[in-house]
Amino acid sequence: MEQNGWVECEAAFESAWDGFVEAHPRGRFSYLAGFKKTVETVYGLEPNYWLYSRSGQILAVFPSFFHSGLIYGKRLVSQPFSEYGGLLFAPHLEAREKRALLDEFPSVIEKSRRKRRFGYVEFRCFSDAEGTETALFKKMSLFSYGILRLHPGFNLWRKADRSARKNLKRAWTHGLTLKEGKEEAALREIFYPLYLKTLKRLGSPPHPLPYFLTLRKNLKDRMKLFLARLDDVYVSALLGWAVGKSVHITDIASDERYFFARANDFLHFELIQWAIANDFRCFDFGPVRYPGQRQYKKKWGVELLEYAYYYFPKDRFRKPFSDRSLPARLASSCWKTLVPRGLASRAGKYLRKELSL
Question: What are residue 347's DSSP bridge partners?
Fold first, then answer.
């Protein structure tokens, strides 16, 4: 990295890039090079990754993908198929230094347009925007996301509220047991069938199995899969990502026939306990979109932070669909009732790609 300023990330820089993300408190799996390779391989999107270098040191990174669809047209998305994106700045930078880097950011967009034309850039969450106070972007507040801040000696049993403790006692009474799914077979034979069944119940298109298998291949032990078993039946699965000092959960899948055993609470408790024991500092519950999610995540004692999309340029963008809107609810109902489960994985891939969700 002999050049100073914004430079396109090459394969030779990926190790340094990942090191920067791992050391960042807001680094998540969707920023890592393994995620980039997965999206390229499974969904065929073209990456557009940039970093800001000074004297051989990375001061900021910007991951994104070119995306073209019938609904949103041509755009640059940071990051598709993820809850988080946008730039990450070196944690030691002061606000004025961040703004100085952002002053040069429009040149990155212009250079990106020389590769492929697009209308605007969409940043999903951009949680590291604090202190920049820039007029470059249009900010659209959507909902919130839940963070549980961990520390040595953190007592989850005391932090969780009465309802969580009651559900955990019920799970233990029913004799739930825990398994960590380290083998590919656990992902393929236990997690994915539960995942398909859950998303069918929720009326949401699933990722194809190769998406998860390729993530496992590219991100290796950063993937954390916890499974709950009742007698000889696996009834629930929780998928998360251990990056730096953070654990971020993305998928919970369960069999509704066994809701009485409270396996979802059991798995959340076990994975948080694992994070505490392994000296992690943050457990990220992800977005809180509606009251039910808010109630579930608040019972663990989370801190709710603002979740927003950012757009550049600020006067040219298309709003994301709300999953509570009438068209979204109709689409969800049709998916539940009309799409056969055997077709869901293949059809889900095309819908996911169209929406980059």
Answer: none
CA distance linking residue 352 with residue 204, whole number of Å:
10
- Domains along the sequence of the chain with CATH: 5-136 (3.40.630.30), 147-303 (3.40.630.30)
By CB atoms closer than 10 A (0-12, 13-18, 19+), residue 225 is buried
Q: Cis peptide before 57, with omega less than 30 degrees from 0? A: no
Q: Max CA-CA distance within the chain?
A: 61
> Quick one: CA dihedral 204, 209, 213, 218, positive or negative?
negative
Q: Is the pLDDT reported for residue 340 higher than 90?
A: no
User: Rounded to an integer, what distance in angstroms lies between the CA atom of residue 132 and that of residue 58?
Assistant: 18
pLDDT tens, residue by residue, 265-284: 999 999 999 999 999 999 99
Q: How many CB atoms lie within 10 A of CB 210?
A: 15
Q: In whole angstroms, give the CA distance from residue 324 to residue 304.
A: 20
Sheet holding 223-230, edge to edge: 46-47, 65-69, 73-78, 120-124, 303-312, 138-149, 282-288, 246-254, 233-243, 223-230, 177-180
What are the residues facing 228 on neighbouring strands?
Answer: 178, 236
